[in-house]
Amino acid sequence: MSELKADLRRELVARLSRLDPNQTAALLERLEAKGVDVTELPIVAGQRPSQLPLSYAQQRLWIIDRLQPGSALYNAPIALRLRGELNLKALQAALNALLARHEVLRTTFDEESGTPRQIIHEVTEARIAREDLFDLPVHEREARALELAGAEAKTPFDLRVGPLFRVKLLQLSEREHWMLLTLHHAVSDEWTLGILVREFTEFYNSSVDRRSPVLAPLALQYADYALWQKHHLSRKVFDQQLAYWTNRLGREDYVLALPTDYARSANAGHEGAEHRFQLTFDPYSFAALRKSEGFSPFVVVLAAFEILLSRYSGQADVRVGVPIAGRNRPELEGLVGFFANTQVLRTEVQGRSLVLDYLRQVHAIVSDANSNQDLPFDRLVEALQPSREVNQTPLFDVMLSWHRGLDSAPRIAGL
User: Fold this and answer.
1) Percent of the chain having pLDDT more than 70?
2) Taking the complete model, does pTM exceed 0.90, yes or no?
3) What is the pairing mode between strands 75-83 and 176-184?
4) How far apart are CA 189 and CA 220, in angstroms?
């Protein structure tokens, strides 16, 4: 495909901003027919239709919510422990600013003629539920705060009514507060939580310092991304990526035969246990290998995990589900919303392979998967049509989730 020259690219971006979704889709189709690589074009906030569609990820959660109403499974909680002189006016101003900046935080969902849609509400003051624990003995307050945090995290949302962004402030003493933020996954993901903490910190500090916040304005909102994904994203890209995943995974059913102490129940359950342990090696210590081969710590851990699954199951064919951020475009990096997608990484674990050769194989598989990450997981399931069981995830049975955490603790004024 031909590359876009800078002046033509600017002209097309300006034109796209004036078009509605149908006009945009028609223009991109004509450009593709002429051999233009439209994937070079950024996502542009154009004219919006009267009915805003859900993104594919949101649509998946909407369907799950219709099937299992009242579930807190897709709650995304975060707790900030605030020690010091808390400025309540700055706290309220910071939360108000977050709601004003990100439309998706004031979005709910509904259906019209069987089609789900996003409803973006006007900017209002953020609601803060407050509870003080002064009536408890000092030594009991933290335990009670943990109970309240757990209860808040497990309180379900109503996707139709909202709000899908809750704030609760617990006061343990004059100089210690816990701020509990809870969002539904339909308007957030792990990356979102980092954005919220960073931007809350900047809005709070700027309010305390009586200055303007140092945050660039957003050129896009999540609804613009959902429109692009549904109407603007190249059909050719979808077809190419679907062909890649179909060829990679095949159409045969897959079950990882891990030994268990109990038979699998007939219905899906979400209760589980947690086992914490520390690896005896540090994946970040492979400095020379990473420099010479380009292996990330994730590739090293994934490879080791797949070998372990192969040993336990006795299967050479190992498939692991991996959540990815889904923000492979720079214009999406600062947006709050649900961008995460799921990939299925399939590897053949050969018992006599050299470790370095196997790491190279896994590295190549991860690289190829990242080059084909735009296809929504539900569209892949729809295309492959595996045998569906209510007690199993389609296409994979085990997931490896890699969390980086915040780069550093937020520096909040006075706290």
Assistant:
1) 95
2) no
3) antiparallel
4) 17
Phi and psi, residue 119, nearest 5°: -120, 115
Q: Which of 82, 407, 56, 28 is nearest to 232 (CA)?
A: 28
Q: What is the DSSP string of 271-301?
A: ---------SS-GGG-HHHHHHH---HHHHH
Contact 197, 181 (CB under 8 A): no
Closest to 53 (Cα-Cα) out of 113, 118, 105: 118
Peptide linkage before 21 cis (omega within 30 of 0): no
No. of helices (H) and no. of strands (E), the chain: 12, 9
What sign does the CA torsion over 97, 403, 299, 318 have?
negative
Segment (H or E) for 342: strand 341-348
Taking residues 37-59, report their average pLDDT: 87
Burial of 400 (0-12, 13-18, 19+ CB in 10 A): middle
Tell me if 130 sits within 8 A of 177, measured CB to CB: no
**Considering only CA atoms, which of 99, 102, 110 is closest in space to residue 159?**
110
Please state, in angstroms and rounded to a whole number, the distance separating the CA atoms of residues 101 and 244: 38
Quote the CA–CA distance of 363 and 292 in Å, as a whole number. Answer: 13
Cα dist. 62→59, 118, 181, 241, 351 in Å?
5, 11, 21, 25, 43
pLDDT tens per residue, range 124-147: 999 999 999 989 999 999 999 999
Q: Please, what's the largest Cα pairwise distance for the chain? A: 74
DSSP conformational letter for 130: E
Do 182 and 176 contact (CB within 8 A), yes or no?
no
Q: Which of 179-183, 351-355, 366-370 has the lowest mean pLDDT?
A: 351-355
| Contact call for residues 98 and 126 (beta carbons, < 8 A) | yes
Please give the average per-residue pLDDT across 283-308, as a whole number: 82
Question: Cα(110)–Cα(290) distance, rounded to whole angstroms?
Answer: 48
Contact 227/52 with Cβ under 8 angstroms? yes
As a three-state string, the secondary structure of 18-34 is CCCHHHHHHHHHHHHHC
Strands 176-184 and 107-112: unpaired
Across the beta sheet with 165-173, the strand order is: 75-83, 176-184, 165-173, 129-132
